[in-house]
Amino acid sequence: MPFTLATWNINSIRLRAALVARLLREEAPDVLCLQECKSPVDKMPLDVFRAQGYTHCVARGQKGYNGVAILSRLPLEDCGDHDFADLGHARHVAARLENGVTIHNFYVPAGGDIPDREKNEKFGQKLDYLTGMRDHFHAERPERSILVGDLNIAPREDDVWNHKQLLKVVSHTPVEVAQMAETQDAGAWVDVTRKDIPEGNLYSWWSYRSPDWDAADKGRRLDHVWATRDIAEAAHSSRILRAVRGWEQPSDHAPVFASFDL
């Protein structure tokens, strides 16, 4: 069963419902995973998406913060969620397609501004969340699974606009990159985006603080698509829709796409 999947930190599903609808209309992924929905599930504008054929949804939400949702044209089975690091946040949800593939949708904590857990509680929470993910994948090795989401880490030197300048900036510090690598190894996850696009600078996030984000191009690849090794070779056609960052009242993230022939 071939299908196309996309992941996008929408930064408020209610504020940007029209942008989600536009992406569904213009790009028509079979599955769209959203993060930072900032809404309880019963307040999400799901009718807008159902009207475009996305009649299936598995989501977890909370008022004003976090929140993850999986919208699909294909039937989904709710596979639950995990509260990694016991934060009480809606940051993970999983769903299974009829072909047996499980999709994990994650929104990893951003980690604040100071890369020191002694001075910044949020940075410690981020590291603890990744540790929880790692330990879970060690205990229950995933199979026929896809992991997507805003992982809030740009691991490679060419995943950021300036490697040396960002080594002490949260999202690209060595401790975060090492923690991410341990998490990835624990589940034997393959970075599908970099499998398909192995070389060159690649970004999915550009700060709102930049007066001209496009010209400055000070981006980071914070949004990821991973697959377990048993299905990774079935993935292809990865792309990041940079132009979406330039839509009116956009999210600061761009959607990341991948297709699978399974």
Chain-averaged pLDDT: 98
The tally of structural domains comes to 1
Q: Could you give a short account of the major beta sheet?
A: 6 strands, mixed
**Fraction of residues in β-strands:** 25-35%
Radius of gyration: 17 Å
Q: What level of helicity do the residues show?
A: 10-25%
The CATH class name reads: Alpha Beta
Task: State the separation between the terminal residues, measured CA to CA.
Answer: 5 Å
Q: Which sequence of strands runs across the widest sheet?
A: 3-4-2-1-14-13
Shape: globular
Tell me the structural class: alpha+beta
The CATH architecture term is 4-Layer Sandwich
Spell the H/E element sequence.
Answer: EHEHEEEEEHEHEHEHEEHEE
CATH topology: Deoxyribonuclease I, Chain A
Q: Helical element count?
A: 7
Poorly predicted regions: none
Please identify which CATH superfamily we are dealing with: Endonuclease/exonuclease/phosphatase
Number of strands: 14
Any chance you could write out the topology, listing elements then pairs?
Blueprint (H helix, E strand, L loop, with lengths): L1 E8 L7 H11 L3 E5 L10 H5 L5 E5 L7 E5 L3 E3 L13 E6 L4 E6 L13 H19 L5 E6 L23 H13 L2 E3 H5 L8 E2 L6 H4 L2 E2 L2 E6 H4 L2 E6 L15 E6 L1
Structural notes for this entry:
With 262 residues, this protein is of the alpha+beta class. The protein has one domain: Endonuclease/exonuclease/phosphatase (Deoxyribonuclease I, Chain A, 4-Layer Sandwich). 23% of the residues lie in helices and 26% in strands. The protein is built from seven helices and 14 strands. The protein has helices at 17-27, 46-50, 121-139, 174-186, 192-196, 213-216, 229-232; strands spanning 2-9, 31-35, 56-60, 68-72, 76-78, 92-97, 102-107, 145-150, 189-191, 205-206, 219-220, 223-228, 235-240, 256-261. The strands form three sheets. It has a six-stranded mixed β-sheet. It has a six-stranded mixed β-sheet with strand order 5-6-7-8-12-9. Helix 3 (121-139) packs parallel to helix 4. The longest helix has 19 residues, at 121-139.
